Write a sequence for this structure.
């Protein structure tokens, strides 16, 4: 169970680490999209303890490919966010299963 929890924490750190350059790229390449999201910052989203970030649905469902079509750097960072987000969900699923199995 500790291993699964550690994996969840590590993937969260990776997600936030990739989120910073992604938000910077979106701010530079697509200011309208960035302002539509409410001018988010990774630190601000963490401090406000938001579980669902403004762009999470777009990244999770891969809609970023069309939404950020003219923004190559943003799209590249979004694909790394996509991988990190699915790793988070997988780690969370393993953690929850390990809780139900009694920490075996």
């Amino acid at each position: 169970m500790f291993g699964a929890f550690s994996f969840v924490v590590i993937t969260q750190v990776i997600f936030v680490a990739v989120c910073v350059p992604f938000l910077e790229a979106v701010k530079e390449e697509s200011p309208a999209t960035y302002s539509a999201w409410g001018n988010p910052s990774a630190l601000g989203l963490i401090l406000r303890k938001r579980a669902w970030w403004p762009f999470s649905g777009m990244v999770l469902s891969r809609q970023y490919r069309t939404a950020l079509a003219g923004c190559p750097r943003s799209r590249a960072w979004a694909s790394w966010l996509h991988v990190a987000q699915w790793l988070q969900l997988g780690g969370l699923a393993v953690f929850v299963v390990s809780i139900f199995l009694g920490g075996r």
